[in-house]
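Thread: Modeling a multi-component assembly for a lab meeting

Hi all, long-time lurker, first post. My supervisor asked me to bring a structural picture of a complex we are working on to next week's group meeting, and I have zero experience with this. I have the sequence lines for every component (264 residues in total). Could someone generate the structure of the whole assembly? Inputs are pasted exactly as I received them:
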Amino acid sequence: MDQPAGYLHWGFILISYPNLILIGIMVVLFVAALLLPFPGHASGDKGRKS
Amino acid sequence: MSTHVTNESGHSWTAATRRQLERRLPWENLLPDRQPFWVGSWVYVFGVVTIAALVWVILSGTILALFGPQWWHLSSAGRFFNSLHFWSVQVFFVFMVLHLWGQYFMASWREGRAPTWMVGAVTFGVSIVAAFTGYLSQQNFDAQWIAVNAKDAVNSIGVGGFFNVLNFGQMYGLHVMLLPIGITVLVALHIVQVRMKGVVPPIADSNAVTIKGR
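Re: Modeling a multi-component assembly
Sure thing. I ran the full set together rather than chain by chain. Output:
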């Protein structure tokens, strides 16, 4: 842990692996939030404000 | 017995403010018990997690400020709260950016919500400055390294005369007092703005409403 992080150097892209992994996790979380059903939420207008 | 003078005509600024608040922010909007059906999505949880992380940031930061740098570097409890502060900041930023992505792709500035979007963007900017001053306040070699490098960046944008990043006292004061107050006020304002206008409808639903209204 107590050493500099490794870096991905691909063309003009230079990013540390921890940052790259974190961004990957964020993208996965974002897509999962769009696709996963929300618990206790049935489709339809039941909860719509009148 | 004293006489109580009331201004029923309501020309005073307090009465005007009260009427404005009653009209624009009724209790049912401020503390709603129902939300539109489209709010039933994990995307809307990102903002709530960001606020929860901010609460942990403030609580752990308050404990660090109470005991000081020697405690957070040398004792196990201090190191635990130091880590708690650091990781709650990571959660705060990760979920704030996820919230930003979500709101960007649903164009949540629509239908009079531009001020809400702008306050959110300003909160993001102020949070970055708060995190930066936090890194400078660590009281270790990492903080010194960041400060020595950052001084050139700060000077290059012309604010070096006001912000000396090598001055621990100034950076620590900003980090534990002014910036947290700023973020808390901005987040509170952001929530009130969301309550005032309601959660933005989906783009398709918004178009349907517009077509119906024609």
